[in-house]
Automatic annotation (TrEMBL):
Superkingdom in the source lineage: Eukaryota
Annotated organism of origin: Amanita thiersii Skay4041
SUPFAM superfamilies named in the record: RNI-like
The protein's name in its UniProt record: F-box domain-containing protein
Stored InterPro entries: LRR_dom_sf
Length: 369
């Protein structure tokens, strides 16, 4: 480090010890804190934090715990005026003073479990914030007034759906909600945003809620819709009809979709396959990738016993789509468009791990600075 002179330091520090900042190696790094540009910490827990004065060049501070978290720990810096990317589990312990954290410059913020008043206190004052990720929350008062928190610039968001009741986000383009989805249609109507990607991390999405979401003007611009593994999706005949291209009409919901991930479709027997077929064959469709996960794929003849799941007709219809690459297992189907026109069909023992949806994957894809 000494030979590098004044070159900014990019540090990735991984330590599983209870006191990861007490060893000699880290003390050497701390002596060069004035040169830190990016600092990433990965560990299973820390019960005390290092102390530093000023980190004038620090742009990225990223604390990520792979195991249990300790109680809230104080922010280690007196000043970091260049900070634009902050991943910090304990948002409530952050100083609100702009002299410590340049809140007006912060572009990316990721945290864990917070109360609604913390969102109001920290996020709304960060006027330059583009990306915010909150894993979960504690619904304890005092609560902001419904629709009272407007952020003019936020573009991508991961948050419990119940928190949307207080928010108005006109520039939002990428959204992942956790928990129930009842508030989402009201949020879209209130924000009048234009979504490009929408994902759910919920146990189920009800028919009326899903229909309201997809019929919203905010969903017209969607290019990616993900209802991933573990989410039960309830369809109606009317909704699937509205999603299906026909030879007589090219008017469909979500006409710009390029990526569609579904799981455990219910009420869709005999209709899901034709909808997907139309999305890959109609000349005005943009769909490039479709994935579907469901244990009923293993025995599609029994789909009627599980509220109208994916059935044998749907399977045969999908396998008949021309000019696509199809990969499938007993629980998973993946279809990608083949521009060359050869097509392929591949049976697998199980789906690749890389195709398993996660919150971190969504964050990496849609929250990059």
């Amino acid at each position: 480090m000494e030979r590098a002179g004044s070159v900014p330091l990019f540090i990735y520090y991984c330590c599983q010890n209870p006191d990861p900042f007490e060893n000699v190696v880290f003390q050497d790094l701390l002596d060069q804190v004035h040169r830190w540009s990016e600092f990433y910490f990965r560990g299973s827990g820390a019960y005390s934090m290092f102390k530093a004065t000023c980190a004038p060049l620090l742009r990225v501070l990223d604390f990520y715990y792979v195991g249990g978290m300790a109680d809230a720990i104080d922010f280690p810096f007196v000043s970091c005026p260049s900070l634009i990317h902050l991943n910090w589990p304990w948002l409530e312990s952050l100083p609100t003073e702009n002299s410590v954290i340049p809140w007006m410059k912060l572009q990316r913020l990721r945290t864990w479990y917070i109360q609604p008043e913390i969102v109001s206190k920290y996020v709304v004052q960060a006027k330059s914030l583009l990306h915010f990720h909150c894993m979960g929350g504690h619904l304890q008062g005092p609560f902001p007034a419904p629709g009272s928190l407007t952020h003019p610039n936020l573009q991508s968001l991961v948050i419990p759906c119940s928190y949307l009741v207080w928010l108005v986000l006109p520039q939002l383009s990428h959204l992942l909600v956790t928990g129930h989805t009842d508030e989402l249609p009201h949020f879209l109507l209130r924000s009048n945003c234009r979504l490009q990607s929408l994902a759910f991390n919920s146990y189920e999405v009800r028919t009326d809620c899903l229909s309201s979401i997809l019929h919203s003007p905010s969903s017209t611009s969607l290019t990616e819709l993900c209802l991933p593994v573990g989410t039960t999706v309830w369809f109606t005949t009317e909704l699937l009809t509205d999603l299906t291209y026909t030879s007589h009409s090219s008017e469909v919901l979500c006409p710009n979709l390029k990526i569609l991930h579904l799981s455990r479709a219910r009420g869709a027997s005999g209709q899901l396959g034709p909808m997907v077929f139309s999305r890959f064959t109609h000349p005005q469709s943009h769909l490039e990738q479709f994935e579907y996960y469901d244990f009923s794929l293993e025995r599609p003849e029994r789909s009627i016993l599980i509220d109208g799941g994916f059935d044998e007709f749907d399977r045969h219809t999908i396998f008949a789509i021309p000019n696509v690459h199809v990969q499938c297992s007993n629980t998973w189907i993946s279809i990608t468009r083949d521009r060359i026109g050869t097509g392929s069909l591949r049976f697998m023992d199980k789906e690749p791990r890389s195709h398993t949806f996660s919150l971190d994957e969504f964050w990496r894809e849609h929250h990059a600075i």
